[in-house]
Write a structure and sequence with these properties.
- The chain is 48% helix and 5% strand.
- It is mainly α.
- The protein folds into two domains: 35 residues, no CATH class; 81 residues, no CATH class.
- Strands 1-2 form a two-stranded antiparallel ribbon.
- Bound molecules: zinc ion.
- The site of zinc ion has 8 residues, from loops.
Length: 123
């Protein structure tokens, strides 16, 4: 049976293996530094991308990716003059929403780390 794997981390004080979400070590009672990125709301990320393509990515901390979305979206709107934009714009818009939602979920589950700590990787 799989799925029993529990995310764990090691206490910064005593080194005990504790739940990844634990804020305080149950063994020694020392508060753990918040190593994980602050929780993202996938719904909010999607709504932001719904309102403006790229905004959900920026909310997720993926500034570079958000800018790329905004640039691609702008190009796509310009392409509406040659009809192509009517196809690419909705695709980019929906893609931006789905990506923002999934990225927020991945950040929350710890699969993806974004934020000020690795800003170079995001640009
Ligand atoms: Zn401890």
């Amino acid at each position: 049976m799989e799925g029993q794997l529990k995310a764990t981390k090691f206490c910064t004080n005593c080194g005990a293996e504790i739940d990844a979400k634990a804020e305080i070590c149950p063994k020694c009672g020392v508060k753990q530094p918040s190593s994980n990125s602050p929780a993202k709301n996938p719904g909010l990320a999607a709504v932001l991308s719904f309102l403006f393509t790229g905004l959900g990515q920026i909310y997720n901390g993926q500034i570079g990716k958000g800018i790329i979305f905004i640039v691609m979206y702008s190009i796509s709107i310009a392409l509406m003059f040659v009809v192509v934009g009517f196809v690419t714009t909705p695709i980019l818009w929906i893609w931006g929403m789905v990506d923002a939602y999934k990225t927020a979920e991945r950040i929350n589950s710890g699969q993806l780390k974004v934020g000020p700590s690795n800003k170079n990787a995001n640009i």
